[in-house]
Specification:
The chain is of the alpha/beta class and 378 residues long. The protein has 14 helices and ten strands. The protein has a six-stranded mixed beta sheet with strand order 2-1-5-10-8-9. 22% of the residues are buried.
């Protein structure tokens, strides 16, 4: 990316002309690691959970005692009294109707998850690098078809805006307002019980505005649906990659994007605003695998390609009942029997041979004529 575009254009508030150019910060050349981003996002999101638990009294607000042994019933505690259906019913146990749950939840559960600092920084720089690729930003669903370039950098005059109508005019001037309209059209009623718990609606995410100093900027932009603001010194992965998905559409101010080299350093100098931090390096300097494989250096040492079709190192097992050649090898007389069957079938088809009736089995009971003559002459 740095070879294709070593500098970024800084657009004026009008959105038409280029006010200045700045060099591309080195953080946009960092490796993009979706696996690390997803892992860090999953564990960071757990740190904002609100503790919950069932009541400590639930299921145990009744007087019940076990009947003990000898009454042919289980030794589970049973409700005292008589004259009602409840009397004598089992209580307290997690297998009982109206009883407490197994291992009731407590608010002092360990809710937070510790994360390595360098791992969180790796995820942050990966999310920043992904935000500079239009393909990933569009794949995330942002409407950036009409903007000039990504990352979108605007002059520092926008930090002095105080009116929302001025913020809307700015977004329309740089062709970024369609992403806010997308958010406004996506507002839906939440499914489930969350609609009763102060989160009645749900909607998409819009642009993320990153600034250096707030001279009224936050007040101007904060009422736009889906649009979020953050100081460049307090970048948060939950905003840079919502849901763990890379490619957030980011609108930078000029001073904010110029500060990135001091925050995260370059590949030549370490960061000045972070102690002992250097950018993670790419595992591969050239990601074009096809070009690497076809290079003269690799092709000169690899062995030549083999035949496309290889002969089996073993004989294939064939069924002699279905393969006449294999049957002939096992039983040479099978060919004679088969030929006789074919000849007979041809004669039957031609009408030369009639089908003979089967002879009845068993001894004949009909007496011969000579025997009857001898018998009657006596």
């Amino acid at each position: 990316m740095s070879a294709a575009r070593p500098v970024l254009n800084v657009y004026a508030e009008s959105g038409n002309n280029v006010a200045a150019t700045i060099p591309l910060p080195a953080v946009f050349k960092a490796p993009i690691r979706p696996d690390i981003v997803n892992f860090v996002h999953t564990n960071m999101a757990k740190n904002k959970r609100q503790p919950y638990a069932v009541s400590s009294k639930a299921g145990e607000q009744t007087s019940a005692e076990s009947w003990g042994t000898g009454r042919a019933v289980a030794r589970i505690p049973r409700v005292n009294g008589s004259g009602t259906h409840r009397a004598g019913q089992a209580a307290f146990g997690n297998m009982c109707r109206g009883g407490r749950m197994f291992a009731p939840t407590k608010t002092w559960r360990k809710w937070n998850v510790k994360l390595n600092l360098n791992q969180k920084r790796f995820a942050t720089v990966s999310a920043l690098a992904a935000s500079a690729l239009p393909s990933l930003v569009m794949a995330r669903g942002h409407r950036i078809e009409k903007i000039e370039e990504v990352p979108l950098v605007i002059s520092d005059n926008v930090e002095k805006l105080t009116k929302t109508k001025e913020a809307v005019a700015l977004l329309k001037a740089v062709n970024a307002y369609s992403d806010v309209v997308k958010v406004s059209n996506s507002r839906k009623l939440r499914a489930g019980q969350g609609k009763l718990r102060n989160r009645r609606h749900r909607q998409r995410r819009g642009p993320l505005v990153i600034y250096n100093e707030d001279n009224g900027l936050v007040k101007a932009f904060r009422n736009l649906p889906g649009l979020e603001l953050v100081n460049v010194r307090h970048l948060n992965l939950l905003q840079l990659a919502p849901g763990g998905h890379l490619g957030r559409f980011i609108i930078w101010t000029q001073s904010a994007i110029a500060l990135l080299d001091e925050l995260y350093g370059t590949y030549e100098t370490p960061a000045t605003l972070k102690k002992d931090y250097v950018l993670p390096d790419n595992i591969m300097t050239n990601p074009d695998v096809a070009r690497l494989i076809n290079s003269d250096e690799i092709q000169s040492v690899v062995r030549p390609a083999g035949n496309k079709h290889h002969k089996r190192p073993f004989t294939q097992k064939k069924n002699p009942l279905k393969n006449q050649g294999v049957m002939n090898r096992l039983n040479p007389y099978a060919q004679v029997l088969r030929r006789a069957e074919l000849i007979k079938a041809e004669k039957v088809a031609a009408g030369k041979v009639t089908k003979t009736q089967k002879k009845k089995s068993g001894a004949s009971t009909a007496a011969s004529k000579k025997f009857l003559e001898v018998l009657h002459s006596a």
